[in-house]
Amino acid sequence: MTDPAIADLSKDAAARAAVALVEPGMRLGLGTGSTAAIFVRRLAQRVSEEGFALRCAATSKATAELATSLGLGVEELDEIGWLDLTIDGADEVDPDLNLIKGGGAAHLREKIVATASERMVVIADQGKVVDRLGQFHLPVEVIPFGWQATRKLIQRALDRLDLTQRPILLRKRGDAPLRTDEGNLILDLALEAIPDAEALAAELSSIAGVVEHGLFLNICELAIIGCPDGSVVELRREDMA
Ligand SMILES: O=C[C@H](O)[C@H](O)[C@H](O)COP(=O)(O)O
Q1: ipTM score here?
Q2: For residue range 45-76, what is the model confidence (pLDDT) as tens digits?
Q3: Is 56 helix (H, G, I), strand (E, B) or coil?
Q4: Is 110 among the catalytic positions?
Q5: What family does the Swiss-Prot or TrEMBL record give for this protein (predicted)?
Q6: Distance CA 149, CA 155 (A)
């Protein structure tokens, strides 16, 4: 676990490098979370200094509010239609640039926005880089109707993948179940490690009550990893380089 102050310097380094990828007139997807929020602040700063136009779609109500408060115009994704670039954070990044996202319960809209973009770039601190996905609890957004049956079906899917006895936790905010921007629930899967992310993603996607899981496979093209000294390391997916 990275020291929070060090992580903030690193996140800022990654955010500043990502702002340099933005070109005037771009159609841009804005991610969610603490790293994405730093990016939004740095982006607003650059736009106010240089005064160019952008069209932005946000991945959450929180990001839309932040961007709007900083003077960035935010539109619905469908008003813009398609995006040139999405910049977002991640909870884990593996060597193939596969990700776990959804620590902030926003992965459904994040995945819609990222896959409606020509390019998705992740910004993160070094603590997010892992050899194999799964230490971070995998968020799964589920419909409230019949969610306990959905949880049983997820458990059975995990059993088929030899991920037995893994806790599946209903995410709460205070005493109440957390509701996503879409009014759904989040189940967090404490897997420890994911031996076959493609197989798990396919199993989860086949369950009726599952809206979306937080595995982002083959979506991210570039990860900008910030370091506390202000430098960054760029990780690229081989097949897109
Ligand atoms: O749902 C939230 C998102 O997937 C975030 O991008 C992710 O949790 C990373 O957030 P942070 O930058 O705060 O670590």
Answers
A1: 0.98
A2: 999 999 999 999 999 999 999 999 999 999 99
A3: strand
A4: yes
A5: Belongs to the ribose 5-phosphate isomerase family.
A6: 10
